Amino acid sequence: MSRMPTTTLDTLGRLYATGHGLFGFCTDCAKLYRMADPPERCVPSNFDVDLAKLIEERGADCSVIHMAPVACPRCGGLRTECRITTPP
Ligand SMILES: [Zn+2]
Known about the structure:
single chain, three-stranded antiparallel beta sheet, 3 helices, binds zinc ion
C-alpha cells in the first residue's frame, strides 16, 4: 500500500506556496447588512486577506488553524473568520 502524496495546508507559508489565498468574513460588518437596503448601500462583510503581508507580520510557520483573527479592513474589528480559497 502506498499513500498518495499530500500537502497539508496548515501554515500560512504552505498556503502561499501552493497558490491558495485567504478571505475574511467580518461578523460585525455582516450585522449591518439589511436585506431591505438596495445592494449599493449594503456594507460588504467579506474582504480579501493580503497573504504576503500577513506572512510578513506573522511568519510563514504561523498555523492557519485557530489563527488569531485578521482585523477587518473596514471596521477594524477582530470578530472575523478566515476561509481558504483555491488557486486561480
Ligand atoms: Zn468589519
